[in-house]
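Weekly structure sync - notes
Attendees: PM, LS, DV (DV joined late)
Agenda: review two folding runs queued last week.

Item 1: First target. Sequence and C-alpha cells pasted below for the record.
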Amino acid sequence: MINKRGAGLLGAIMLLAAACNSGTSSPAPASHPAGSGAPASAAASGQCIVGVSWNNFQQPRWAAKDRPSMQRTITNGGGIMIDFDANLSDTQQLTDVQTLINQGAKVIVLLAQSGTSGAQAVKLATDAGIPVIAYDRLIEDPKVLYMSFNNTDVGKAEATAMLAKVPPGTADKPANYVLIKGDPGDANASTFLPAGWDDAGLKAAVDAGTIKILNNPPDGTFTKAWDTTTATSQMEAIIDSANAAGTKIDAILAENDSTALGSVAALKNKSYGIVPISGQDGDTANLQNVAAGWQYVDVWKDANQLGNAAGAAALQLCKDPNVANVTIPSGIIDAASAPDNLAVQDFTTPGNNVEKSLILKVQPITQDNLQKIIDAKWLTLPVLCANATDPATAASICAGQAPTPAAAPSSAASPSGS
C-alpha cells in the first residue's frame, strides 16, 4: 500500500488536479487527509468534484482495477476525483468523508469499511446535501445509490460450479464441504453470497444429509476483514481437525478470492493436495491458481466496468443530485457485465429498505473458459499461466507457455464485496 500520510494535502490535491487536467491517472490516494481542500478554481467554476473514500488499499483490486477506471471516466467527463484510503479504520473513514465534504465534493463514492461507518458517513454527506454512491458494499439507507455486482448471483455461480464438480453424496456417505466466508459485518458475506449458495442447492443437500459441513455447521467460518492470513490459519485448523477425525475434505466453498487464496495456502502448508475451491473477483493470483489447477472456479466481477459505471453516475449526480434519475450511458459498461436496464432500479435490502441500485452481471471462470480473461485483456497469457508448471493440473490454454514467476503478484487478494 502506498502511504502518503506525511504529505501535505494541498500538494497532493495540486498534483491530482494536474493529473486530471492532463488526462492521466492521479497519484494513489492519500492514506490520511490533512490540510486544505480541492483547488479553489475547480469549486468556483462549478467543476464536478467527486470524493471517494476507499475502505482499504491493502488488497490489489481497488487500486489495480476499480480506481483507475473510475478516475479515467470522471477525468474524461471533465471532473476531478479526490480520494482517500481509510486503511481499514471506521474512524479514519469518517474523517476522510468529512474532509472530502470540506474540500467541496459534490458527490461521495463510498466503499464502506463497515455498516456502522457507512451509515454515519452517509448521514454526514446527506446532511450537507451531497448524494452518496454506496460502492460495491451495501449501506442500509434509502438515500444512497447502491452500485455493485449481483452478489447473490456470485454465490449461486460459485455453488453451482462446485456442486457440479463435487456432487452431493448419499446419506450414508455425504460429500464433505468446508465453508469459508468473509467478514461477518458485510452483507455480502452474511446474506447475499449464502443466499446464492442456497439457491444453487447447497442448503437442500445439507438438509438431506448428502452434504456435510465440516466446520461450524451449518454456517461455516467467517473471516474478519476477508483477510487472507486469517483464512489460512482457519483452514489449517480445519485440516488438522479433519485429519484427526480421519475425514477427507472434498470441497471448499470460499466466498471470495482472499479467502480462497488463504485456503490454497493452508492446503500447501499442510501438504494436503488439491481440493476444489471457489472464489470471486478475478484477482490475478486466483486466476493463476485456476490456470494451475489450485482453484476450481473464480466468479469474475469485471471491476473495470463497475468503476466506469460509478464514474459516469457520479458525473450525472453532480448535475442532478436525485439518485432516482441516474441512467448509465450506453457503451460505458461492456455488454457481458451490463445489466439489462441501464437506468437505476429499486433494490430491497436485507433491512427492508428500498434503495436505487445498478447491479452488474458476473461470469464464472474455470479452466474451460479462461480465454475470456485473455480476450478482455484482464491478464496476458504469460501472466495468467505464470504458475501453471505442472502439466497434470495446468489448463490447456497454458500449454507451451514459458513460466514468468516475476509477473506473479503478491499473495494478498481483494475483499469482495468483495
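Item 2: Second target, run right after the first with the same settings.
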Amino acid sequence: MIQFILAAVLLAQITTHTPHLIFEKNKGQASPDVHYLLRTAAYQLNFMRGELDFHIAQHALKIRFNGRLNHVIPQGHARVDNLIRYIDVDKPVDKDQIPKFASIHYDSLYAGIDLTCYGRRGRLECDFVVLPGADPRQIQAVFEGADEVQIGDNGDIVLQVADQTLRIRKPDAYQLDKGQRRSVEIEYELGDHNELSFRIGAYNQSVPLIIDPR
C-alpha cells in the first residue's frame, strides 16, 4: 500500500488541523476532470480517472497509474452527514451544498484490483486489495512533477518536489487466512523512468492480498 507523509512541518499541520480527512464531491469547485477532492492545511489532492493530483503550496505532484488499468471513475464511500457550503463572496447566497465522504474507492482500477483512499490519524492512506487470481504486478505508478525520486535505505520512496520532501512509506502486505493474519514479503521497485511497482514474495493466490500501510 501507499501511505503519504509530508515532511516534518507539513505533517504537523495536517495532524494538528485535520484529524479526520474528509473527501468532497466535485460540484463545480474544481475542474471538470476532478471527481473528488481532499483539502488540508498543507495540500489539496484531486481524485481523477487513473491518477492522484497533489497541489502543495505552489507545486504540483501527479501520481499517474500506468499499465493496463481501467480508467474507472472514483466513488465516494461512507457519506458524512454534514455538508460543505461554499459562499460566493460577491453574492450573499450559498452555492450548491457539497457532499462529503470518509473514503474514495476505485473499483477494479486494474483487473481484480481495487484501490481505496482514506484518512487515519490525519494521514492519507491508500490500500490496494488484490482479489484471488489477480496479478499484483499490474500495479504501476509514475511520478510527474518530482525533481528527484529514490528508494531510501529504510525502503520508503522519497520524493523531492521543489523545497518540499514527501515520503511514501515502505509497504506492508498480508492475507487473512482462516482468521489468521499472514504477512507477505513486499518492497518497492523503481524503474528507469520513476515508475513505481511492487516486488512481492510467495503468497496464497486463492485468498485476497492486501497491500497496506504499516
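Discussion on item 2: Confidence is low (pLDDT under 50) at residues 3-19.
Action: LS to circulate a short write-up before next sync.
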